[in-house]
User: What shape does this take?
Amino acid sequence: MNDPRRTDDARLSTADLAAAGERANERVNDRALDQANAQQANAQRQAQSAQQAQTAARAQSDRDVTREVQRTQHDQQAATAAGAAANRQAAEQERPTPMFARDETNDFHQRWVDIQTGFVDEPRQAVERADALVAAAIKRLAESFAQERSTLEQQWARGADVSTEDLRLALRKYRGFFDRLLSV
Assistant: This one.
């Protein structure tokens, strides 16, 4: 319809050409705006996806940290329990063996309390009784070690094997006695 070679009256004015150019520019601008909006929407979707991925990664990291903390707490509890058991065992091994039977120990303690109580009324007699009590305790202790030694010597004389446990207990008793002597 518009052939530039035509010479009829259907020519476009400058205003028509300018308006056509503006419309073309508007279409280009509209397309550019649509593309920009699409790019912005795409960038927002990507940002949301990245944010969701970060949130998921943080949640996974939090779960991993929680598991690690729980594992560490469990390991610490196990180590504490093992340490406590080892401490109890060491304390039992280091606890000095009693030098006297419980009833003898109680008797010595009661006699000592009586001596201290009697000191107020008769100090000289209390000191004499204290000396006699210490002598009796030392004599009883010597008898106990002599009896234990005799038992071990009899087992050795018969050619019987003395168990390592019996020897360990005897050595523990001697060690306890010796340590107490040196700490006096």
User: Anything to note?
Assistant: The chain has two domains: 8-95, 97-183. The chain has a mean pLDDT of 78.
